[in-house]
Each structure stands twice: as structure tokens, then as C-alpha cells.
Amino acid sequence: MITSFLVKSLDRTIAVAVAILLLLAVIVPALNLLTAPDHPLHVPTYMVSLFGKYLTYALLALALDLVWGFCGILSLGHAAFFALGGYAMGMYLMRQIGARGSYGNPLLPDFMVFLNWKELPWFWYGFDMFWFAALMVILVPGLVAFVFGWFAFRSRVNGVYLSIITQAMTYALLLAFFRNDMGFGGNNGLTDFKDILGFNIQADGTRAALFAASALALAGSLVVTSGIVGSKFGKVLVALRDAESRTRFLGYRVEHMKLFAFTVSAMMAGIAGALYVPQVGIINPGEFAPANSIEVVIWTAVGGRGTLIGPIVGAILVNGGKSIFTAAFPEFWLFALGGLFVLVTLFLPKGVVGTAQHHLARRRQARAAARKEDEQTDLEDAKPMAAE
Amino acid sequence: MTEKNPRTLLYLDGVSVSFDGFKALNSLSFVVEPGELRAIIGPNGAGKTTMMDIITGKTRPDEGEVFFKGDIDLTKRDEAEIAQLGIGRKFQKPTVFENHTVWDNLELALNRGRGVFATLFYRLTGEDKRRIEEILATVRLTARRDDLAAGLSHGQKQWLEIGMLLAQEPELLLVDEPVAGMTDAETAETAILLKDIAKTRSVVVVEHDMGFIRDLGVKVTCLAEGSVLAEGSIDFVSNDPKVIENYLGR
Ligand SMILES: Nc1ncnc2c1ncn2[C@@H]1O[C@H](COP(=O)(O)OP(=O)(O)OP(=O)(O)O)[C@@H](O)[C@H]1O
Ligand SMILES: [Mg+2]
Fold first, then answer.
1. Is residue A257 assigned to a domain?
2. Which of A8, A30, A235, B81 ranks highest by number of CB atoms within 10 Å?
3. Residues 259-288 of A with CB under 8 A from B
4. Are B181 and B145 contained in the same domain?
């Protein structure tokens, strides 16, 4: 059952993308660790982390594509799930610091000592264990999405209204995480990490491993999403995206379908956030900013919604552009991003990958038609020959 | 009051619904027996589509009873549940899934597990494949099976939708204006198709095309202003002075 699900998911473009990601997971760390710094093919560590960060953004965009591209749910709050996963990882990393913090408290993170707290809050229990934190990385965003989706989809909130309440959700979380008494480090968030799984988080080897983990997580998620999208369930998603009430009259529980896709998507976003935090070294409430979620929508639109590969390409292109652009003209980046969104919406509504796929399909069709015609003329040519 | 018979497939009694004070259905009573093919006529705004909305759970009645197969109260169930109980519906405006192929449209409509996991791990069995091929042949779309539904002609979309209804294997089929926009030849074929379908299940057809209704040759109900004006054979109904005044004479 599961194997057929996975085999079906591996259509050609997806298979190529997965192969590239697996290759990157090996080559980039190798070029970083095994070549001398002056070697022409050497990839410096800062680049490894930068690209690792892009891969986590790509995973976030892929997660959004599952709900936006295939169910028509324009979530403007997906960065919230990313941030929740990031916080879960951040809490693990904080507890790994142990007595090495500025206050030397073996149990309490620095910010708690600073706030004069005497005990570890109950919700920090267990985060000293990696497996527990890893579980929370998936469960917490999944649970938030499940509860949110349960109410929203059951009340049949759709379209713009749904988008607005997803923005409200991420904004509410932003305000909550800003508060010191919430116990997540308030304004400053969680930072000054030292180790992950016993390895120095700054070390080249750790950085390379985190990059590889990001590439693998993206490849794995691509296989899973393409399996979902390629199954009959995926067809139901597209059906309800295009004609929701018709789908209900066929007997499908539209709200359950959406809830499943939304929850899986939030879990993927959580994994992306968890891989992001150790690579950038900090998580703070700014990650919940409504604008962050909107940026994810732009990446996805630029790459091409509903294509799975598109959001990955879009996230890497836009963020690569951002890194270059903000170095040259920092104050113009937001204008450039806004302009890009307008241009893509007007001239490339299918996005970069969507448009390319469209043209390829058209060319293939034209070639097939031409071949048919050739065969026909060949036959006609053959007839008089036979007569002679 | 209609007498409730345990054999009755569909039973509506005293159903009323209003939209912003406008009474779309006014104490409507209506009964369909198993295996019956019934035609419904009536002027625009008579409440024909609204009646289907009530039966399929899209609209809740303000008052009145709606029972399926004797004792299943349809007013307490939602669209998905009612569809699973065996009531299929074709809309007035043809709605097929345009971004899916003809084949996928039928596969989606097939009467199989509709849950998240049932669909996630669904595999097309030989039996399901044969069933879809059979329906494709019935609605004459075999040649278009791999084309997107968006590319079908209007009449073909109507037929695909009828095919989707067949795939659902409902006990009761509600068909809203199936021949609107069809050519005369298509209309005649549709009448044959519906009569054929009605051999194994009950069908309720709403239509304005009197020629088509005549072709069907079944009991006719005329609705007007949300209630039943007349019921009987086509000749009986079309000679009723109230029907002539309200509908045919216009
Ligand atoms: N959801 C709704 N909200 C408001 N008014 C409605 C709604 N649904 C139906 N109506 C009104 O109820 C009346 C009955 O409409 P209905 O669609 O049932 O008529 P009909 O008999 O199907 O007509 P037609 O032959 O034009 O399809 C109309 O006046 C319509 O405007
Ligand atoms: Mg109508």
C-alpha cells in the first residue's frame, strides 16, 4: 500500500528534483569539508549555511503549495508553523547550553535567571531530550493547525476570510511570544546556542550536516507531497479547490480533506523551522511577523503554485536575489519584492516553473501532431509508389 | 397531508423555506416511489431547484418533513452524508471538474471509500476500471476519456455529469434541466438514457422542454410559487387550466 503510494509519487520531474537534492546533500558538504580553502571548488562554510537556510525556506514554500496550490487555501499564516517548529528546536538548543550560560545555571536558560525565575516552567520539561524536541517540532505546529482548521473548515470559512484569519493567527502568536512572561525569551527570543546532539553548532562539520539534513528533509517532503497529490486524495483536493460544493454532493467530507492537508502542511513547515534555527543561530518573535507569511506566498507564486517544484525554485531564486540585492541596495528590497510580485501576477501567472512546464507540454504536443502528419504523408507517398 | 408509506423512497411533507421573507417553497408535499421516473415542470422561480437543495442538504427547510427510505430524516444531515446515503444530483449549470480528465471525473464519483485514508491509498481495481469503462460507453465519452473535462462541449459536460451520477450508484437521482443547451438529437438521446437509468433506480427530472417531457412519458408534477399545482399524466397536467394560466400559457 505505502510502496505503491511512493512509487506513484515519483513522476519524472519530481524524481529528477529528488535526485538533485540527494546529490547536493553529498556534494556540498564534501566540497566544504574535503577541499582546501583556496581550492577553486571549495564551498565556504558561510555559503553552506546560507544555502541550507534557502532549503528550509524552500520546504516552507513547498508546504504552502500543498494547501494553496492544490486545495485553494491561501494561508497567510504559514510562517507561524515554521516559527513554532523553530521554537521547539530552539528550546532543545537552549537546554543543551546547560551551565555554560552567562549565569551558569545548570537548569534555567539565561533569560529565566534574568527574570528571577526559580523553576523551569512545565512546558520546558522534556526539551533536554532531542527525540522529544523533534517530536514537538512536528506535533505542536500540527496541533495548532488541526485546531485552527477544525473550526475554520467546519464553519466553511473560505477565500479572503480564511486568509485574513490566518494572518490574525500569526499576529496573535507574534504578540504572545513577545511577552516575557510567556517563557520563550520575549523580545530577544532564544539564541547563543552551543551544541546540537553533542556537536559544536558552529563547527564546519555540524554546518555541513545541517545542510545535508535540510536537503534530505526537502527531498523526503517532496516525495511525500507528490505522493499525496498523485493519489486519489490529491484529485479530491483539486476537485474541491475548483468546485467545492460539487465535491460535497459526491459524498466527500470536504472539511476533513482540507484539515488533513492543512495539518500535514503545517508539520512540514514546522520541520523547516526546526532546521532553520540551528543554521541561523536564533529564533525570535519576529519570525511570526505577518509579512513573513506573505513573503512565502510570493516565493510560491514566483516559482509557480500547484507545481511542487515551482515553490522550491521560487524560494531559492527570490531569497538568492534578496541576499544579493540587500547587500547592494538594502533600502529598496521591499520595493523590488513588491514589484516582482506584481510583475509575476501580471505576466507569469503560472510562475516560472508553471510557464516552463506549459511550454514544454505544448512543444511535445506539437511534435506528436507533426509526427502523426508525417506518418500520414508517408503513407500517401507510399501509395503511388506501390501502384507503379 | 400525504399518507406516509414505508415503501416510499422520498417523502416531503409541508416543506416551507423562505429567503429574506420570500417564500421559495410553500408547504410543498411530494412523494417518489422506488423505481419511479418523475418529471417536474414549472415556471422560473417556482422552487424546483430549491426543492433539490432541500433534499440534498444544501438548504435547511424552515418547516416540514423530509424522509428518505421511510425513516431517514434528511433535514438532519449534511450534503456529504446525504450523497453517501444514495442521493445523487446533477446541477442546473453543468459542474464537472474542469482540471481533471473525463476518466478522473468518473473515478472521483465512483461509489467507493470517501475518507481521507481510503482515498490516499486507493488503487484502481479491475472491477472499478470495468465500471468506469462501462459508464464511459453509456454516456458516449470513451473517445474523450483522457481529455480534460474543460475541453468538452456543453452537451458532453451534461452527459459526463450524468455519468458521474451513475458512478455514484444512487438510489435516487435528481436531475436539474439535463437538456438545456442540447441539440434536438442530443435531447432525444438523453431521454432514452434517462429512461434506461430509471429501470434500476428512481429519477426526478426537472425540465422546461415539453417535447422532452413528452418523450419521457411519465407522471408529471407541476410546481408554481413553491407548491404543487397539478400532478398526473402529461396530457392531464397540460390541460389543467391552472397550469395553462401559470406556466404553459405564458
Ligand atoms: N439561496 C437563495 N437565496 C435567496 N433566494 C433564493 C435562494 N435560492 C433560491 N432563491 C429564490 O427562490 C426562488 C425559487 O428559485 P428556484 O431556483 O428554486 O427556482 P426554479 O424553479 O429552479 O427556477 P428555474 O426554472 O429558473 O431554474 C427564486 O425566486 C429564487 O430567486
Ligand atoms: Mg432551477
1. yes
2. A235
3. 260
4. no
